[in-house]
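Record format v2
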Amino acid sequence: MISKHKSAVYMDGKSLLEEKIKKKNRRKDYLGTYLFLTPALLLLFTFSFVPIIYVVYLSFHRVRLPDDPIFIGIGNYAQLMGDSVFWRSMGNTLIYTLGSMSLGLFAGLCVAVLLNRAFKGKRFFKVFYFLPSVTSDVVSAMIFLWIFDHNLGILNYLLPKVGLVEPPAWLLDPFWAMFILIFVGSWRGAAYNIPIFLAGLEGVPKSYYEAAEIDGANGWHKFWRITIPSIMPISVYCMVMSIIASFQVVAIVDVLTDGGPDNSTLVALKYVWQQSFQFNYVGYGATMSLFIFPFLLVMTWLNLKLSKRSG
Amino acid sequence: MKKILFLPMILLLVLLFAACSGSDNEVNSGNDDQNNDQNNDQEQNNDEEQNNEQSADVPDRDFAAEGLPEYNQAIGDLEETTLEVWMAADYIDEAPVQDAIAEFMEVYPNINVETAGHTWGDMQDQVRLAVNGGAPPDLAHFHAFSMGNQGLAEPVDDLWEEWGAEEEFLPGAVDNVTWEGTKYGVPIDINTTFYLYNTEMFEEKNLSPPTTLEEFTEVSIEVADLDQGRYGFVPAASTWGLHGWMVSEGAEILTEEDGEWSTNFTDEKVLDVVKTYTDIATEHKVGPLPPAQARQSDHPVAMFGNERAAAIISGPFDISRIENEFPEMFDKVGTALLPGSGKGSVAGGGSMFVPKDSENREASFELMKWIISDKYAIRMADEMGRHPVKAHMYENELYADPLLEPFIETLQHAEQYYLEAFPEANSAYSDAFRNVFDGADIEEAFTEAQEKAEEALARSSNE
């Protein structure tokens, strides 16, 4: 009985010891993990979190560099509410975003469907269509400037030759100027989306189409009932990336329209830049940035949510 | 395996923390002090020897005869220094500027110069960012008066006084570096605007260049041949360019009284000039609408050089450009004074300045003297179409060119575009001008601009 008891104590003691060793090892593992993560976390903290916190701080101050910030409470936020130019720029950004995203997705999907067949030179076209997305924004915009400039552009040189005597001043007309910006944005967006859609299309099992054919489905049915649902997660990803990229547009606007005519193509980030760095209202610029930030945050959240659901 | 990975990781962290500890925290014992004294003495001796060596290296050259500044011993005695120089991209890459910098470094081997080109239109914002970020370049290029007003440039009155060369400069050029009596830099070049026309087209219609605003409209209409795709005049949506007309007509957009600045955008004369100028494109349609882009200088030259327009307003810099880019039509180019009083134009060109808090003020100032020295100034005029800021340079045979006559004539009366020193007010004025081309009512547009400018000036005077 005694020996039995002793053995139980021994056994308990052993299990306690094992537990202690396990704990120690686990702590070691955690320590290792955190040590490895430290450099990346430090960089992330320094270059992402600190600036964001600083922007929040600035938004409650009047900042005219190099002077010290002066606390003004919600003064910048109040100014923002009454700033018609800012709201106009937000409206323009939304129009641009919706336009360039929809056109970019549609064109990207169309080209990807066309490329998703066996034909000679397929590889060349894959690279060719991707080129605009690796070309800088400024270069892309310059190409379109030389097409659409009303005096020296090639389009207005050719149109009178086919009977259109007085072609419009494309970049000086509010409607056409925005349309051209959307066109350039979607041209670049489509180029980015094509390889992603193509990868998605190539991943749809052939057996689905064969089964549908046996059931008598035509091409349109197969596209709507099989292709589209299969590539939905990829489409959501492309959509969210397009929205984020569109919110960050500045260079194309700078080169083509400079925000004109009469602010009709002024986008939010260009206005933020102007207020912050051209006019030195850094605090106010920070407030505007904070207003744009939630949009992007919501989009990213939406992306994760929808991708998960689709998955 | 884990342990092996730990070691470099820990080492890296130790190094990281070690690097964070400042080098200022050196603690010396009494003995160390003695050793340090000895070391200091030795270093001092070495420095003296070095200085003697450097003094001995003073180049045996007659700098003045070569059209260069005299050797400056104080600069030669400086420690090894690197100057970061930011200039407009269409200056810094040009041979005269590069050669001036190279020869400066040859004469002062202790000074190394690193250059970077920036777009002229972006320079102000770039310098502002650099100054506010605590990393200013040593020398930058813009309108020093504007940078001085915004607290972005170092005053250099003491260095000008030491130099003693102010008398040599054209008054308009010195204006480019002066704000409220303080000098903030050294002018690099000067230009004014005048009327450039296609002599062949004018002769065809038996016309002479216009001398008044009314004549300007008439001549522009008459010389145009829209069926042939030829415009009479190419307006630009540039308020700097417009300012020449304002000066010529005696219109003042900005005035100063007892240190208080105010704008007069709704002045009748101002609106008259704007109307005459913009009507060419919007009402009479004998000029194209200016392009949407911020940079306006390329478009008129391209239209004029391709003979799609009979006249433009520009400066001497575009004479060289037309000669280089459109040689086949260069012999048809004629020049005349701006229509108006005949005694006005806008003073252009730029200046070099030492951005606020730069540590190498003296060396930068010396480099400025080299860049505008007679030797390189005349090369800048000849090769780049960027004209000198010193009066005696205009005795050079280069200025016997009849095309440059209106430029030399207007040099005496040209005025700086001071509104540039107030970016927000300037932006409001520029937007209004642009909007008139895009169909806005002149009075409404400029009344709105006036209100915005008044608010902006009030804000800046309160700060």
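Chain B touches chain A at residues 2, 5-6, 9-10, 12-13, 125, 128-129, 131-132, 150-151, 288-289, 291-294, 299, 302-303, 308, 356, 423-424, 427, 434-435, 437-438, 440, 456, 463 (CB under 8 Å).
The first strand of chain B starts at residue 81 and ends at 88.
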